[in-house]
Amino acid sequence: MDKKYNRFWLAVGIIVLTLFLDQLIKIEVKTHMYYGQSIRITDWFYIAFIENNGMAFGMQVMPKAVQTLMRLVFSGVILWYIWRLAKARFKMGYIVCIALIFAGAVGNVIDSIFYGAIFSESTRMSIATFVPAGQGYADWLYGRVVDMFYFPLFEFDWPSWMPFVAGKHFIFFSPVFNLADAAISCGTIAVLLFYSRTFGESFALFKKKD
């Protein structure tokens, strides 16, 4: 098989595996934990079930339905970009990074599109269950993204002499996130650290015609 197809299908394999694991973990958490429930694994690692309305780490910058549709379009562009990278035989490591970003974006889009329509409400008193499509806690496109990984690596109280934050409690790392968020973050950080030049060179693909 041509090497360009090997690159593309390896990227597809990474995407499928990441999406499978992301959804498996989310469904397991959502159907076995109460909202807000936290399970201690170690002092610095918890499974803490929360949901959010936005993108990575809970960010939301526009109406929910618009944001979901824009993320779908963005995901389509990234898939096309991966194909062009493979066809142009770009570095495999770079393609893997972009595949992780794509998988993370799609993983959270799946929650937004489907979860509101196929799951009952997760509350502090009841665990969500699957329901007939369209009879869930929200309309299509309005589902909430499931988060569960919490790493409070260390925490302390700011000393009283510190301006603005005196006496406040600080936790590092405080965001709760999911595997899709981690894929986006890892892919992005790796591109910035190791493939910044390759990223710049790849813009030429948008000017080329098949």
Mean pLDDT: 90
How many H/I helical runs?
Answer: 5
Look at the helices and sheets and give the structural class. alpha+beta
Largest sheet: 4 strands, antiparallel
Walk me through what this model shows:
The chain is 49% helix and 14% strand. The protein has 210 residues and is of the alpha+beta class. Strands 1-2-3-6 form a four-stranded antiparallel sheet. The protein has a two-stranded antiparallel ribbon with strand order 4-5. Helix 2 (64-87) runs antiparallel to helix 3 and helix 3 (92-118) packs antiparallel against helix 4 (179-194). It is globular, with a radius of gyration of 20 Å. 29% of the residues are buried.
Essential attributes:
4-stranded antiparallel sheet; globular; 6 strands; single chain; alpha+beta; 5 helices; 210 residues; two-stranded antiparallel sheet
SSE topology sketch:
Blueprint: H1 3-30, E1 38-42, E2 45-52, H2 64-87, H3 92-118, E3 145-150, E4 154-157, E5 169-172, E6 176-177, H4 179-194, H5 196-202
Antiparallel strand pairs: 1-2, 2-3, 3-6, 4-5
Helix pairs in contact: 1-2, 1-3, 2-3, 3-4, 4-5
Transmembrane segments: 7-25, 65-83, 95-118, 170-195
Keywords: Aspartyl protease, Cell membrane, Hydrolase, Lipoprotein, Membrane, Protease, Transmembrane, Transmembrane helix
Pfam family, one: Peptidase_A8
